[in-house]
Amino acid sequence: MTYQAFYRVYRPQSFREMSGQSHVKRTLQNALLANKTTHAYLFSGPRGTGKTSTAKIFAKALNCEHAPTEEPCNTCATCISITNGSHPDVIEFDAASNSRVEEMREIIEKVRFAPASARFKVYIIDEVHMLSTSAFNALLKTLEEPPAHVVFILATTEPHKLPATIISRCQRFDFKRLSSIDLLERMKIVLEDIDLQYEEQALKVIAQSAAGGMRDALSMLDQVVSFSGDKLTLEDALFVTGSISQEVFYDLAKALGDRDIAQVLALLEKLMSEGKDAVRLSEDLITFFRDLLLIQTAPDLEDLLELASSDEKFKTLANQFTTDTLYGYVDILSKTQQEMRFSHHSKIYLETAMLKMAQFAPGQPIIQAHTQANSPQLQSIGESPNVAGLEAKIASLEQIVHQLQQGGQQQHNATPAQQRQRPKVDSGMKINVGRIQEVLKVATKKDLQMIKSAWSDVLNQLQKSQSALLEDAEPVAASSNAFVLKLKQGVYCTIGTNNGTFSAMSTILQPLTGVAYEIVVVPEDNWLKIRADFIRQHGLDKQVHSLEETPADNVNEMTEPLFVEERIPSEDPLVAKAEELFGKGFVEILEE
Predict the structure, then answer these.
(1) Distance CA 294, CA 323 (A)
(2) Which positions fall inside the AAA+ ATPase domain (predicted)?
(3) Under a CB-based contact definition with an 8 Å cutoff, are residues 30 and 100 in contact?
(4) Is 123 left (phi over 0), alpha (psi -120 to 50) or beta?
(5) 8 A C-beta contact, residue 360 and residue 325
(6) What CATH class does 6-174 carry?
């Protein structure tokens, strides 16, 4: 006989053999004993949780020769033929490959015929959500007024795709993901049956990778058994499933606790080089820190641990962190995981999350972390845990609130003219004037046009929040390896630097242009002043004044990008005519 996969050989054949789903088993068994079964059932839930197996067991219990019974005997001719899939009155129908209305009508036409040898004619329709609208309409009438000898069992992983009229005519059972304990117990039965020794930690790794699906767990177990020798070991399970060992998680968590950023990034780089997926790794890290929380808060629940163990070193590791710190780690990783879904640079997001975790201070608001460096009053907060220290903190906070209230009152009392004249708040952005001048010295129009030609593609590939930040941004000068990016306000430069917008731009721009450009950002007001100073220092002001009389060939290539804006009106006669009729202030030139 040909080899069969574990999930087929060890498929449960009775309610007693089923793992989990106790609410489904109890309801169906009570209905069988009381002879109160209905005509239509809907089994919904994740893949590999026992929907089709339960449907077959229920079909056997309905038609067993010893019925009514809560368990099929699996010895009578009817049970054996249903198990083998050869019984004429138990019809399995795959809606994924037979979704048309013609196939459904063919079934409905045979519904009215009495069973050949059983008490009930059972139709098991798998993946029922794949049926077409016409097929659902054809099935609806039969579900509404079925013959007494027919039972429909609909199975689906996506119940939200079913029409409400179908769902309302069925008894619905929601199958849940199986717990790690259920998966472990079933895998132990399989390994004991084939007489293979195993390490329990290896089974935990497989159960964690299966994510609550029995079929996935048995499939991976089958693969690991084929890979292993005389004993199923932890190393074999880690290698086949692509999971990470407890020791790596331990070392990573210890490095985070010690704030050893170099060690954290080195471990992460090693995992990435081994082919680990960043999204999967973030999920595993969340699970690991959840285990540390369990060890801290509920040490008796050892059976619920998935990636950590109850060894003494993990208990010591868990006690090195405060509960707030572990909650903070989970929160950072959860937010990072959401951001990864919209980016192709998942590794960068995970590295950033690790840096945040290494520098995380529990109980410290985000705004405080930004303002401590510039506020001596806030620097004094958070030093002493005694009463005097707390009083000092309260006094400092009251003083800050008082100052803010005074500032708000002064602003409220100021006249509109005074409010308009109030100077702009400095964003704290330091302009690299020297680097901008170096770019201007070797800037060419060709390099600038190359940047602008790829600009729309860059904006489309950035995240929405990042592209919105660059809505009014414009490349104004470019050399062979760098370009100057003008932004509307200085605060945009600061935000873009902090959230990685400019580094992401450079990464996206490189394959489009073939050059790894350095991006030098500058606010618009500063750019106008730097540009004017550069023109004056290099004696180019005469060229600016006589630009309309100067042929294009006579302009120095070094200063050509500086004159692009001035040259546009004189190069296009239509633009010149529009400016003559309406004035330069009312003409806006859009490049397509």
Answers:
(1) 10
(2) 37-179
(3) no
(4) beta
(5) yes
(6) alpha beta
Q: Are 224 and 232 in contact (CB under 8 A)?
A: yes
- For the chain, give every domain's residue range: 6-174, 180-241, 246-358, 433-586
Q: Which position has the higher pLDDT, 408 or 476?
A: 476
CA distance 132 to 135: 5
Continuous segment of H or E residues that includes residue 144: helix 133-144
**Amino acid of residue 348:** I
Token digits for 140?
Answer: 């609806």
Rounded CA gap, 203 and 303, in Å? 13
pLDDT (0 to 100) of residue 191: 92
Q: Is the pLDDT of residue 373 over 70?
A: no
Q: Which two tokens stand for residue 283?
A: 């999920």
User: Which CATH number applies to 180-241?
Assistant: 1.10.8.60
- Residue 408 CB contacts under 8 Å (≥ 6 apart), including other chains: none
3-state SS of 243-270 is CCCHHHHHHHHHHHHCCCHHHHHHHHHH
Rg of the chain's alpha carbons, rounded to an integer? 35
246-358 has which fold?
Zinc Finger, Delta Prime; domain 3 (1.20.272)
- How far is the C-alpha of 128 from the C-alpha of 244, rounded, in Å? 37
Which range is most confident: 280-294, 365-379, 425-439?
Answer: 280-294
Q: Output the six-digit token pair for 106.
A: 């063919």
For the chain, how many residues are written? 592
Residue 125, classed as helix, strand or coil, is strand
Residue 511 to residue 521: CA distance in whole angstroms: 21
* Domain boundaries 433-586, corresponding CATH code: 3.30.300.180
Cβ neighbours for 431, distance < 8 A, ≥ 6 positions apart = 522, 523, 526, 530
Cα–Cα distance between 148 and 138 in angstroms, integer?
19
Instruction: Say how far apart CA 579 and CA 592 lie, in whole Å.
Output: 20
**Where would I find the beta strands (DSSP E) of 98-249?**
121-126, 150-156, 171-174, 197-198, 231-232
Amino acid letter at 24?
Answer: V
CB 242 within 8 A of CB 231: no
Burial of 539: CB neighbours in 10 Å, binned 0-12, 13-18, 19+:
exposed
Per-residue pLDDT of 534-580, as tens digits, reads 887 776 655 545 444 444 444 444 455 554 444 434 446 666 656 66
**pLDDT: which is higher, 390 or 47:** 47
> HEC states along 546-580?
CHHHCCHHHCCCCCHHHHHHHHHHHHCHHHHHHHH
Which residue has tokens 């693969």? 223
The 3-state DSSP class for residue 523 equals strand
Residue type, 313: K
d(Cα 252, Cα 357) in Å, to the nearest integer? 11
pLDDT by residue (tens digit) across 56-80? 999 999 999 888 888 999 899 999 9
Joined together, the tokens standing for residue 129 give: 């959500």
CB 151 within 8 A of CB 122: yes
Half-sphere exposure of 363 (CA within 13 A, CB side): 4
Give the whole-angstrom CA distance, residue 86 versus residue 93: 14
